[in-house]
Amino acid sequence: MITKKIMNIIYLIVTVLSLSFLQSCTSKTSESHKSGSLYDLGTGVKSRSISFENPTGEQGKGGQEASNLGVGRKGFPAKGIAAGETVVLCDITGSGSINHIWMTGGFKDRTAVLRSMVIRAYWENQEHPSIECPLGDFMGNAHAKINSYQSAVHSTGINAALNIWLPMPFSEHARMTLANEGEETVTLFYQIDYTIEENHPEDFGRLHVCFRRENPTTLTEDFEILPKRTGKGRFVGTVLGIRALEGNWWGEGEIKFYMDGDTEFPTICGTGSEDYVCLSYGMQQTPFMFHGCSWNQGGFISMYRWHLPDPIYWYEDCRITIQQIGWSQKHREETGHALYEREDDWSSATFWYEPVPSAKLPDFPDLNSRIANLWEEPAL
Predict the structure, then answer these.
(1) Lower CB count within 10 Å: N or C terminus of the chain?
(2) Which residues pair with 241 in a beta bridge?
(3) How far is 350 from 294, CA to CA, in rounded Å?
(4) Do 43-202 and 205-360 come out as alike in CATH topology?
């Protein structure tokens, strides 16, 4: 039987725990207010946006071009980027963060455009880029195939409206270019939304993105999603493109994170390719916020995984690979084992943060390597 004294003790404990919880919530709210919440109007940062209508992003400098309707009446919304031309998307001095990029134009149903257009970003006046990636893969679409979907990082409209929402902070300088390495002029509309006069912590990470493709992969050699990086960093995620070059199930390969001194065996090891993107028992065209597949048709797969609520940090070094292992009932009948090594066409656009100065990115594939067999359906 519970006595009155015991009830008072229980009440006291509950009261103390409740007050502690409220104090914790208040503290977190206060910290959120200091760092800039939705309702905080005193952050001190300033909002800017760059497009062809305001290429410098300066205050009061937008919409100065004229159309047949007059000055400021849609005078310069887009530009044709000629074959071999590189345009400067932004050149920003000072501290800030790029928070969103939107692009559209002559992309839809043009086979090679999204692999021939290359986006490069240079932070803090570093000579080599920290981002070097075909536009389509950078914007979340492998194989230059457009499909309307949304994730925590990307959103794509059905008419090739491309968006990326990852923050790209910088302390002194940000420069971003777009090169047309193809053979035809491409129309571009774009907008870069950013803030300036920000106070970043010391030694903070800048966004890095690299692109790799192996067509085909090498038998028994794991595909490198992230070639080895040294120093510290945080892995954000990857957009993976697979063109299955034969029948049977292709996705039994495991992802492996070799980090902070790992040699033969990794610290983090997955259980299968579709398992890594948090699906199961084959690949379904099911895009979710942090994981999923945005394209699964005709032997082409575009899938992704974002480690935002489940971060992966390293402090000394990191290398990430994924195996090419298949499953075949026929192979089981012939050998007694269903698993077998195979070769397929794999690509990856990999996103991570690390400080600068940073090492050069892996060698960037040339145009022919990027677009070879791009929409060639495999004989499955």
Answers:
(1) N
(2) 302, 347
(3) 16
(4) yes
Question: Which two tokens mark 209?
Answer: 């993105």
Question: For position 39, what pLDDT does the model report?
Answer: 86
Whether the per-residue pLDDT at 29 is higher than 50: the answer is: no
Report the relative pairing of strands 291-297 and 312-314 from DSSP bridges. unpaired
How many beta carbons lie within 10 A of that of residue 5, not counting itself? Answer: 8
C-alpha separations of 270 from 64, 236, 303 in Å? 54, 16, 16
CA distance 24 to 29: 9
Instruction: Tell me the average pLDDT of the chain.
Output: 91
Dihedral in degrees, nearest 10, Cα atoms 146, 140, 266, 234: 180
Tokens of 284: 């379904």
Provide the pLDDT for residue 4.
54
The arrangement of secondary structure in 205-360, i.e. its CATH architecture, is Sandwich (2.60)
DSSP calls for 120-153: EEEETT-SS-SEEEEHHHHTT-GGG----EE-SS
Question: Using CA atoms, how far apart are residues 229 and 312, in angstroms rounded to an integer?
Answer: 14
Calpha distance 169→191 (Å, rounded): 17
C-alpha–C-alpha distance, residues 195 and 180, integer Å: 27
pLDDT tens digits, 195-213:
999 999 999 999 999 999 9
Structural tokens at position 88: 């400067």
pLDDT tens-digit series, residues 312-353: 999 999 999 999 999 999 999 999 999 999 999 999 999 999
Q: 73 vs 70, 133, 251, 378, CA distance in Å?
A: 6, 34, 52, 49
CA–CA separation, 162 and 278 (whole Å):
24
What is the widest separation between alpha-carbon atoms in the chain? Answer: 89
Residue 51 has what DSSP assignment?
A: B
What is the reported pLDDT for 323? 98
Fold designation for 43-202: Jelly Rolls (2.60.120)
Token pair, residue 231, equals: 């120093």
Tokens of 200: 């970043």
